Amino acid sequence: MSEIKKPETQSGTAKGAIVALTLLTAMNFVNYLDRYILPAVQEQVKNEFHLTDERIGSLTFFFFVAYVCASPVTGWLGDRFPRKPMIVICALAIAGMNFLTAHVTGFWELNVRHMALGVGEACFGIFAPALIADFYAEDRRNGALTIFNVAIPVGSALGFLAGGNIAQTHGWRMAFIASAVPGVLVALLILVFMREPQRVAKTESHSVDKASAASLIKNGAYLTAILGYAAVTFALGGISVWMPTFLQRFDGREMGAAGTIMGTITVVCGLGGTIVGGLLAGQWTKKTGKALYYVPALSALLALPFSVLCFFGPKGWTLPMLGVAVFFIFLGTGPVNAATLNAVPANLRSAAMAGQLFALHVFGDMPSSWVIGAVSQHTNLRLGLAVTLVSMLVGGIIFTYGARYAPELHHNVEATA
């Protein structure tokens, strides 16, 4: 088992922080590239396997079922054992699942492959942020995690763009196979160049027992951070899965063009929102730790009216309103992860991230794609996407309420929440 030790330095960062952040951000990029290939190619998958909207939406649902089921185990492992070797193993497993897509011949085979991908992504999604937290002091985590989360819009964008264009010329299977190569390369770089950080904490009471883990459900700062994020993730996940299809059905775009448009908007507006949100929270946290909750609240509430205009406005407004909505949705991604990690002690970081991922997917993007598909099947896709509007409003309210629980921030690696 890994032992929690005193840090090598009491400055804002520990040795090897930049290398670790660079490599883990690169792997996060690959993660989201893999995840958003399916939305780009799902019209082709639907036609080949003769699926309804509800059934194609269930692919993402079962992906997150596996993701959520794996989270408690990976959280337990991450708080007790070195995370570097486990990150390398899950990165190689993700690449392996993408290579296996070449042999999928039916819906259920694709579903099993997609669920296995979910297990690998759950492992990385828990281990990586907790490991980054051990390299950076509390007042620097927002910046580090903002950089880490820059990979979300960039990776998602390339998934849309590459998935749609490769599928249009070479078929949807080839899009998944092509995405496996960068995953293998990054996994090998992590194996060779990244070090395992020392775990830091204030006291010598480091055991992770049932009582300490159970304390998370009584932690107001933690609960409001993850529940607000879950509400926003319901909207973001649903829009990400169904918007390429929306552009094809209602905007008259071809698959490759829809993927390119969605990819461009995601990388430009999503990346811009992530960076601006991180900078805004960084300045605001100099005055109050509540900023890590206020920025995500503004993110959800400001995205709401532009999403309405995107779904229901004139056809010429669809793309510009989508761009503004994506910008605001991504505004809170860095600060909310910093809020989650700052709300818990060092010995519970992996467990806290496991809890966050459980909430994000059980209440967020696990049901959203299926719910939108079911509503679309019985009405139309515009009304299906409209369910995301309610979740944005709920997310903004939860974050605003959660600001009252925001803890004081510390300025060195040794001091913890």
Description:
Helix 2 packs parallel to helix 6 (138-170) and helix 11 packs antiparallel against helix 12 (318-329). It is globular, with a radius of gyration of 20 Å. The protein has helices at residues 17-35, 37-49, 53-78, 84-100, 107-133, 138-170, 172-193, 210-214, 220-250, 255-284, 291-312, 318-329, 333-342, 349-378, 381-385, 387-402. It has one domain: MFS general substrate transporter like domains (Growth Hormone, Chain: A, Up-down Bundle). It is mainly α.
Instruction: Please summarize the sheet with the most strands.
Output: none
| CATH third-level topology | Growth Hormone, Chain: A
Total beta-strand segments: 0
What's the number of helices? Answer: 16
Order of helices and strands: HHHHHHHHHHHHHHHH
Domain count: 1
Round the mean pLDDT to the nearest integer and report it.
Answer: 82
Terminal residue distance: 23 Å
Backbone structural class: mainly alpha
Short description:
The chain is mostly helical and 417 residues long. Helices cover 76% and strands 0% of the residues. It is globular, with a radius of gyration of 20 Å.
